[in-house]
Protein backbone atom coordinates (compact mmCIF):
# COMPACT_ATOMS: atom_id res chain seq x y z
CA UNK A 1 0.00 0.00 0.00
CA UNK A 2 1.16 3.47 -0.86
CA UNK A 3 0.86 5.95 1.99
CA UNK A 4 2.73 8.81 3.56
CA UNK A 5 4.17 8.28 7.06
CA UNK A 6 1.22 10.22 8.55
CA UNK A 7 -1.27 7.82 6.93
CA UNK A 8 -2.37 10.21 4.20
CA UNK A 9 -2.52 9.12 0.60
CA UNK A 10 -0.26 10.96 -1.85
CA UNK A 11 -1.84 13.17 -4.46
CA UNK A 12 -2.40 11.18 -7.65
CA UNK A 13 -2.78 13.99 -10.14
CA UNK A 14 0.50 14.16 -12.00
CA UNK A 15 0.35 17.94 -12.26
CA UNK A 16 -0.10 18.27 -8.53
CA UNK A 17 2.51 15.79 -7.35
CA UNK A 18 4.67 17.43 -4.78
CA UNK A 19 2.85 20.76 -4.83
CA UNK A 20 -0.10 19.74 -2.65
CA UNK A 21 -2.40 21.91 -4.70
CA UNK A 22 -5.91 21.53 -5.99
CA UNK A 23 -7.48 18.95 -8.27
CA UNK A 24 -8.70 19.88 -11.78
CA UNK A 25 -11.92 21.48 -10.53
CA UNK A 26 -10.19 23.58 -7.86
CA UNK A 27 -11.15 21.41 -4.91
CA UNK A 28 -8.63 20.28 -2.37
CA UNK A 29 -9.37 16.72 -1.30
CA UNK A 30 -7.05 15.29 1.34
CA UNK A 31 -7.41 11.54 1.76
CA UNK A 32 -6.16 8.97 4.23
CA UNK A 33 -6.61 5.24 4.71
CA UNK A 34 -8.85 3.93 7.51
CA UNK A 35 -8.82 0.12 7.38
CA UNK A 36 -10.02 -0.73 3.88
CA UNK A 37 -11.73 2.62 3.39
CA UNK A 38 -10.28 5.81 1.92
CA UNK A 39 -11.59 8.83 3.82
CA UNK A 40 -11.24 12.50 3.07
CA UNK A 41 -12.59 15.99 3.63
CA UNK A 42 -13.57 18.63 1.13
CA UNK A 43 -15.33 22.00 1.19
CA UNK A 44 -16.94 23.48 -1.92
CA UNK A 45 -16.81 27.21 -2.62
CA UNK A 46 -18.17 29.58 -5.27
CA UNK A 47 -15.90 28.09 -7.94
CA UNK A 48 -18.00 24.90 -7.77
CA UNK A 49 -21.36 26.64 -7.51
CA UNK A 50 -24.28 25.41 -9.61
CA UNK A 51 -27.54 26.84 -8.23
CA UNK A 52 -26.93 29.69 -5.77
CA UNK A 53 -25.23 28.36 -2.66
CA UNK A 54 -25.28 24.78 -3.92
CA UNK A 55 -22.46 22.77 -5.49
CA UNK A 56 -22.72 21.84 -9.17
CA UNK A 57 -23.42 18.13 -9.71
CA UNK A 58 -20.37 17.84 -11.94
CA UNK A 59 -18.17 19.12 -9.11
CA UNK A 60 -19.72 16.58 -6.74
CA UNK A 61 -19.06 13.82 -9.28
CA UNK A 62 -15.45 15.01 -9.63
CA UNK A 63 -14.84 14.72 -5.91
CA UNK A 64 -16.33 11.23 -5.85
CA UNK A 65 -14.20 10.18 -8.86
CA UNK A 66 -11.16 11.70 -7.19
CA UNK A 67 -11.76 9.74 -3.98
CA UNK A 68 -12.10 6.60 -6.09
CA UNK A 69 -8.77 7.48 -7.72
CA UNK A 70 -7.20 7.46 -4.25
CA UNK A 71 -8.28 3.84 -3.90
CA UNK A 72 -6.08 3.08 -6.92
CA UNK A 73 -3.11 4.66 -5.21
CA UNK A 74 -3.67 2.45 -2.19
CA UNK A 75 -3.99 -0.62 -4.41
CA UNK A 76 -0.96 0.55 -6.43
CA UNK A 77 -2.96 -0.40 -9.49
CA UNK A 78 -3.12 1.81 -12.58
CA UNK A 79 -6.72 1.98 -13.70
CA UNK A 80 -9.18 4.43 -15.25
CA UNK A 81 -12.83 5.20 -14.74
CA UNK A 82 -14.86 3.36 -17.39
CA UNK A 83 -18.23 4.07 -15.82
CA UNK A 84 -19.32 6.39 -13.02
CA UNK A 85 -22.89 6.37 -11.73
CA UNK A 86 -23.80 9.14 -9.29
CA UNK A 87 -26.99 9.46 -7.26
CA UNK A 88 -27.58 12.91 -5.78
CA UNK A 89 -29.51 12.40 -2.55
CA UNK A 90 -29.57 15.93 -1.10
CA UNK A 91 -28.28 19.39 -2.07
CA UNK A 92 -24.56 19.79 -1.37
CA UNK A 93 -24.11 23.22 0.20
CA UNK A 94 -21.11 25.45 -0.34
CA UNK A 95 -18.76 26.44 2.51
CA UNK A 96 -19.61 23.34 4.61
CA UNK A 97 -16.92 20.83 5.59
CA UNK A 98 -17.90 17.51 4.02
CA UNK A 99 -16.75 13.92 4.43
CA UNK A 100 -15.91 11.59 1.54
CA UNK A 101 -15.26 7.87 1.61
CA UNK A 102 -14.40 5.34 -1.09
CA UNK A 103 -13.80 1.62 -1.13
CA UNK A 104 -13.38 -1.48 -3.26
CA UNK A 105 -16.57 -3.48 -3.61
CA UNK A 106 -15.24 -6.27 -5.79
CA UNK A 107 -12.39 -7.09 -8.16
CA UNK A 108 -13.10 -9.28 -11.19
CA UNK A 109 -9.98 -9.54 -13.34
CA UNK A 110 -9.34 -6.11 -14.86
CA UNK A 111 -12.65 -4.85 -13.54
CA UNK A 112 -12.59 -2.94 -10.25
CA UNK A 113 -16.04 -2.28 -8.83
CA UNK A 114 -15.72 0.65 -6.44
CA UNK A 115 -18.09 2.82 -4.46
CA UNK A 116 -17.88 6.28 -2.90
CA UNK A 117 -20.03 8.53 -0.76
CA UNK A 118 -20.14 12.26 0.03
CA UNK A 119 -21.62 13.20 3.42
CA UNK A 120 -22.30 16.35 5.37
CA UNK A 121 -20.82 17.10 8.78
CA UNK A 122 -23.44 14.90 10.47
CA UNK A 123 -22.60 12.03 8.07
CA UNK A 124 -25.89 12.31 6.20
CA UNK A 125 -25.37 11.07 2.65
CA UNK A 126 -25.50 13.83 0.01
CA UNK A 127 -24.35 11.81 -3.00
CA UNK A 128 -23.14 8.32 -3.69
CA UNK A 129 -21.38 6.70 -6.60
CA UNK A 130 -20.75 3.27 -7.97
CA UNK A 131 -17.97 2.96 -10.50
CA UNK A 132 -16.31 0.53 -12.81
CA UNK A 133 -12.60 1.13 -13.13
CA UNK A 134 -10.59 -0.88 -15.65
CA UNK A 135 -7.00 -1.77 -14.91
CA UNK A 136 -4.72 -0.48 -17.65
CA UNK A 137 -1.03 -0.72 -18.41
CA UNK A 138 0.81 2.36 -17.24
CA UNK A 139 1.47 3.10 -20.94
CA UNK A 140 -2.16 4.28 -21.05
CA UNK A 141 -1.13 7.42 -19.17
CA UNK A 142 1.59 8.34 -21.67
CA UNK A 143 -0.97 9.06 -24.41
CA UNK A 144 -1.15 12.72 -23.42
CA UNK A 145 2.52 13.15 -24.16
CA UNK A 146 3.38 14.28 -20.62
CA UNK A 147 6.08 12.73 -18.45
CA UNK A 148 4.72 10.43 -15.73
CA UNK A 149 5.56 10.86 -12.05
CA UNK A 150 8.75 9.01 -11.12
CA UNK A 151 6.95 6.94 -8.44
CA UNK A 152 4.64 5.38 -10.99
CA UNK A 153 7.49 3.45 -12.61
CA UNK A 154 7.82 1.32 -9.49
CA UNK A 155 4.13 0.53 -9.17
CA UNK A 156 2.31 -2.42 -10.74
CA UNK A 157 1.33 -2.22 -14.36
CA UNK A 158 -0.17 -5.68 -14.88
CA UNK A 159 -3.54 -5.69 -16.60
CA UNK A 160 -4.24 -9.33 -15.82
C1 LIG B 1 2.00 2.35 -12.25
C2 LIG B 1 1.18 3.57 -11.91
C3 LIG B 1 0.19 3.35 -10.82
C4 LIG B 1 -0.71 4.54 -10.70
C5 LIG B 1 -1.85 4.23 -9.86
C6 LIG B 1 -2.54 5.43 -9.53
C7 LIG B 1 -3.63 5.70 -10.49
C8 LIG B 1 -3.27 6.83 -11.38
C9 LIG B 1 -4.47 7.25 -12.08
C10 LIG B 1 -4.93 8.49 -11.56
C11 LIG B 1 -6.01 9.07 -12.34
C12 LIG B 1 -7.33 8.66 -11.74
C13 LIG B 1 -8.21 9.87 -11.79
C14 LIG B 1 -9.63 9.41 -11.65
C15 LIG B 1 -10.03 8.57 -12.67
C16 LIG B 1 -10.18 9.18 -14.09
O1 LIG B 1 -10.63 10.34 -14.09
S1 LIG B 1 -9.70 8.37 -15.38
C17 LIG B 1 -10.20 9.46 -16.74
C18 LIG B 1 -11.53 9.11 -17.30
N1 LIG B 1 -11.53 7.83 -17.94
C19 LIG B 1 -10.95 7.63 -19.12
O2 LIG B 1 -10.38 8.51 -19.74
C20 LIG B 1 -11.07 6.26 -19.70
C21 LIG B 1 -11.31 6.31 -21.20
N2 LIG B 1 -11.63 4.96 -21.69
C22 LIG B 1 -10.67 4.12 -22.09
O3 LIG B 1 -9.48 4.47 -22.14
C23 LIG B 1 -11.08 2.73 -22.47
O4 LIG B 1 -12.44 2.71 -22.82
C24 LIG B 1 -10.87 1.73 -21.28
C25 LIG B 1 -11.65 2.16 -20.03
C26 LIG B 1 -9.37 1.62 -20.95
C27 LIG B 1 -11.42 0.36 -21.70
O5 LIG B 1 -10.86 0.00 -22.94
P1 LIG B 1 -10.24 -1.45 -23.13
O6 LIG B 1 -9.08 -1.62 -22.22
O7 LIG B 1 -10.03 -1.62 -24.59
O8 LIG B 1 -11.35 -2.41 -22.56
P2 LIG B 1 -12.53 -3.15 -23.34
O9 LIG B 1 -11.90 -4.34 -24.02
O10 LIG B 1 -13.32 -2.21 -24.15
O11 LIG B 1 -13.43 -3.64 -22.14
C28 LIG B 1 -12.96 -4.58 -21.17
C29 LIG B 1 -14.16 -5.03 -20.39
O12 LIG B 1 -14.72 -3.92 -19.66
C30 LIG B 1 -16.08 -3.69 -20.09
N3 LIG B 1 -16.28 -2.26 -20.19
C31 LIG B 1 -15.51 -1.34 -20.82
N4 LIG B 1 -16.04 -0.12 -20.69
C32 LIG B 1 -17.16 -0.26 -19.96
C33 LIG B 1 -18.14 0.67 -19.50
N5 LIG B 1 -18.05 1.97 -19.74
N6 LIG B 1 -19.17 0.19 -18.78
C34 LIG B 1 -19.28 -1.14 -18.51
N7 LIG B 1 -18.37 -2.06 -18.92
C35 LIG B 1 -17.33 -1.62 -19.65
C36 LIG B 1 -16.19 -4.36 -21.44
O13 LIG B 1 -17.52 -4.72 -21.73
C37 LIG B 1 -15.29 -5.56 -21.27
O14 LIG B 1 -15.98 -6.54 -20.52
P3 LIG B 1 -15.74 -8.13 -20.77
O15 LIG B 1 -16.14 -8.37 -22.20
O16 LIG B 1 -14.24 -8.37 -20.57
O17 LIG B 1 -16.59 -8.82 -19.75
Automatic annotation (TrEMBL):
Keyword Cell membrane applies: yes
Chemical reaction(s) catalysed: octanoyl-CoA + H2O = octanoate + CoA + H(+); tetradecanoyl-CoA + H2O = tetradecanoate + CoA + H(+); dodecanoyl-CoA + H2O = dodecanoate + CoA + H(+); (9Z)-octadecenoyl-CoA + H2O = (9Z)-octadecenoate + CoA + H(+)
Subcellular location: Cell projection, Ruffle membrane; Cytoplasm; Membrane
Alphabetic keyword roster: Apoptosis, Cell membrane, Cell projection, Cytoplasm, Fatty acid metabolism, Hydrolase, Lipid metabolism, Membrane, Transit peptide
Gene3D superfamilies in alphabetical order: Hotdog Thioesterase
UniProt domain Thioesterase: residue ranges: 53-122
Gene Ontology molecular-function annotations: hydrolase activity
The UniProt record lists the keyword Cell membrane: yes
Pfam family, one: 4HBT
Cross-referenced CDD domains: PaaI_thioesterase
Membrane-topology descriptor: Peripheral membrane protein
Family, similarity comment: Belongs to the THEM4/THEM5 thioesterase family.
Protein's name in the database: Acyl-coenzyme A thioesterase THEM4
Species of the source: Patulibacter brassicae
Top-level taxonomy: Bacteria, Bacillati, Actinomycetota, Thermoleophilia, Solirubrobacterales
Amino acid sequence: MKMMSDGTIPEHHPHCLGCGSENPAGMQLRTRLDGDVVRGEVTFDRRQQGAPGIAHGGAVATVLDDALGSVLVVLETPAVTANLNVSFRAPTLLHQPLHVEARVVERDGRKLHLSARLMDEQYTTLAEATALFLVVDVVHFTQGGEALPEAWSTWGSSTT
